[in-house]
Design brief:
It contains two helices and four strands. By secondary structure, it is of the alpha+beta class. It has a four-stranded antiparallel beta sheet, covered by helices on one side.
């Protein structure tokens, strides 16, 4: 089965690109809140000292499909974005959103190194 055929079966309600865009938007909002907002989630202390928002680079790490997962009752799709401190080429952490088969977000994961 080709990649395109699989994508057409899985991403019926939202395309893979839309889910990636949703994840990037969510990460941008989270980082903006941490570095320029009220830090509602109190995450600022988890980041290296003197780190600025402009120092963080991002790249798509993976799009994963889970048919069975003990954490979720239904099949799910994980979009993961790697965050790096660009000047040092240091991996800062991974940000992931988990979506159900309808494209609705069911979980959010921030794993900082």
């Amino acid at each position: 089965m080709s990649k395109r055929t699989i994508e057409n079966l899985i991403f019926k309600n939202k395309s893979k690109d839309q889910l990636i865009e949703d994840t990037l938007t969510s990460l941008s909002a989270l980082l903006a809140d941490v570095f320029t907002g009220d830090d509602v989630n109190e995450l600022k202390s988890e980041f290296p000292e003197n780190l600025k928002l402009k120092d963080i680079g991002i790249e798509l790490l993976h799009v994963a499909l889970y048919l069975e997962n003990k954490e979720f009752e239904t099949p799910s799709i994980e979009i993961s974005i790697k965050m790096v401190i660009e000047k040092q080429e240091y991996e800062l952490g991974i940000y992931s959103l988990i979506f159900n088969e309808n494209g609705d977000q069911i979980d959010e994961i921030l794993d900082l190194n």
